[in-house]
């Protein structure tokens, strides 16, 4: 009972920054109450549900394109924490049965476990993602939690928002807007983007500085900052008549926060097969990046910073 109570309270604390933790909180608190009342299936049920979390974590990590420290930590936590917890709950259920406890309430726990595994299958097709930077402001904000369906055979279009591994550091995941398809010609003149000779109308783009940067806002040109070698190669091999020409099986992407976005201008093209998917919906949003990124402040301090108006907002591209 004590383990269930502690896990339930931890779930409540984590639920502010991650709503999925609230589900764990409810389950473990219900188990604590049931164990207190001597219901055996409030031991067996959480054991079954917790063991399902281990299967889910291993299954999800097995489908990532790269094994990161975060993914590896999820497996380690699942095996060395969840499995012992599941065993504790199972032993509690056995003890209550030996003491003559009722075996009622089996069906809800079995249904909950089946729902968890079904959710795991769903997450093989839809990936959760938390926005850590302001490069897509004000379309997508720091602290937005997104669901990202994987592309499969879907081909994105110009103006779509796409998710992909950061080419310079593949342990990071970036979200940008797709501007250029293969064979497209791109140039930027005084912050205005021209695609195949036509100036784009971009209601989604935001410029938060008033000055004109010689490279960022007049592109392609000689870099005035250090750029990745991929960008150097792009400027050397894929510029014709003052325009960047997107090569086959590649995309050119930019952030909507144009004056503060680390995008294709600084690290080159995205290979087509690197795209993960398009964000579908914002399922949670907290205006508390310090909690999300460092975990130092109390999660309860963010209660008043939940962006209720952004929850369940569907994300759309903009045809260009």
Descriptive notes:
The structure is a single chain. The protein has 320 residues and is an alpha+beta fold. It has 2 domains: 2-124, no CATH class; 132-274, Umud Fragment, subunit A (Ribbon), CATH 2.10.109.10. The chain contains 8 helices and 13 strands. It has helices spanning 2-14, 20-36, 41-61, 69-98, 106-123, 229-237, 264-267, 289-293; strands at 126-130, 144-149, 161-165, 173-180, 185-189, 192-195, 198-199, 239-240, 243-245, 250-254, 270-271, 281-285, 313-314. The strands form 3 sheets. Strands 7-6-5-9-8 form a 5-stranded antiparallel β-sheet. Strands 1-2-12-13 form a 4-stranded antiparallel β-sheet, with no helix packed on it. Strands 3-4-10-11 form a 4-stranded antiparallel β-sheet, with no helix packed on it. Helix 1 packs antiparallel against helix 2 (20-36). The model is unreliable at 290-300 (pLDDT under 50).
């Amino acid at each position: 009972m004590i383990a269930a109570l502690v896990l339930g309270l931890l779930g409540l604390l984590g639920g502010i920054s991650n709503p999925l933790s609230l589900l764990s909180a409810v389950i473990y608190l219900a188990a604590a109450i049931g164990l207190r009342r001597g219901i055996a299936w409030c031991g067996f049920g959480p054991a079954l549900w917790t063991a399902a979390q281990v299967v889910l974590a291993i299954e999800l990590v097995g489908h990532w394109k790269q094994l990161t420290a975060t993914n590896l930590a999820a497996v380690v936590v699942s095996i060395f924490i969840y499995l012992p917890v599941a065993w504790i709950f199972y032993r509690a259920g056995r003890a209550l049965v030996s003491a003559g406890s009722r075996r009622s309430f089996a069906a809800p726990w079995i249904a909950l476990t089946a729902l968890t595994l079904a959710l795991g299958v769903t997450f093989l097709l839809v990936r959760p993602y938390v926005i850590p930077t302001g490069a897509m402001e004000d379309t997508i904000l720091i602290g937005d939690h997104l669901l990202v369906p994987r592309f499969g055979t879907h081909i994105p279009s110009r103006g779509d928002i796409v998710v992909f591994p950061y080419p310079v550091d593949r342990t990071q995941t970036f979200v940008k807007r797709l501007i250029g398809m293969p064979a497209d010609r791109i140039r930027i003149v005084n912050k205005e983007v021209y695609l195949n000779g036509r100036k784009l109308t971009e209601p989604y783009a935001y410029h938060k500085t008033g000055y004109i940067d010689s490279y960022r806002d007049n592109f392609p040109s000689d870099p005035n900052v250090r750029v990745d070698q991929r960008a150097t190669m792009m400027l050397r091999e894929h510029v014709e008549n003052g325009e960047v020409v997107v090569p086959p099986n590649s995309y050119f992407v930019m952030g909507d926060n144009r004056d503060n976005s680390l995008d294709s201008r600084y690290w080159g093209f995205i290979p087509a097969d690197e795209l993960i998917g398009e964000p579908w919906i914002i399922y949670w949003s907290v205006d508390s990046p310090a909690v999300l990124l460092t975990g130092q402040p109390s999660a309860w301090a963010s209660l008043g910073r939940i962006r209720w108006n952004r929850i369940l907002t569907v994300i759309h591209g903009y045809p260009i």
